[in-house]
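Help needed: design a sequence for this.
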């Protein structure tokens, strides 16, 4: 349950910060986003994923929508048995990397990517080499967070997430 709360907190923290900076261009998109955000708050992930996909399709270069889709996919996979969750991993990895290309300075996105790269096997797009690159990025954003990231990396085999 702690893992779920952490994932939802990352999605909502990032989304609240991002929503404050977005221009109000289309009221319908904002309504859809708020509905999806509300569903994420109660740990419902299927419908928000569908809604965020529509938002991304409508605004493909929006960091906000791409971030929310990637983070919600990651949260959903965390709740699933490994075998079932594996089917969603390629989409999640693709979405994370697309979002990262849009803006690699988001601390919450970097943390999500670090966790994913540590947990997802290399043949599915994860791996420790990629995790080390993310740790360096986190360290550039925040020295304190970089130390935490290195500690997570070094102790990862001993922890269950």
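Sure. Designed sequence:
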């Amino acid at each position: 349950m702690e893992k779920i709360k952490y994932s939802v907190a990352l999605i909502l923290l990032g989304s609240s910060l991002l929503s404050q900076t977005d221009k109000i261009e289309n009221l319908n998109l904002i309504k859809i986003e708020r509905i999806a955000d509300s569903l994420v708050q109660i740990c419902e992930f299927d419908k928000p994923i569908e809604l965020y996909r529509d938002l991304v399709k409508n605004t493909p270069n929006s960091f906000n929508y791409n971030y929310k889709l990637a983070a919600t996919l990651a949260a959903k996979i965390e709740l699933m048995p490994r075998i079932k969750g594996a089917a969603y991993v390629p989409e999640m990895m693709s979405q994370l990397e697309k979002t990262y290309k849009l803006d690699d300075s988001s601390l919450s996105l970097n943390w999500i990517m670090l966790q994913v790269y540590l947990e997802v096997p290399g043949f599915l797009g994860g791996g420790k080499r990629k995790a080390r690159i993310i740790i360096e990025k986190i360290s550039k954003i925040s020295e304190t967070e970089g130390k935490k990231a290195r500690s997570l990396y070094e102790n990862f085999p001993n922890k269950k997430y």
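The mean pLDDT is 86.
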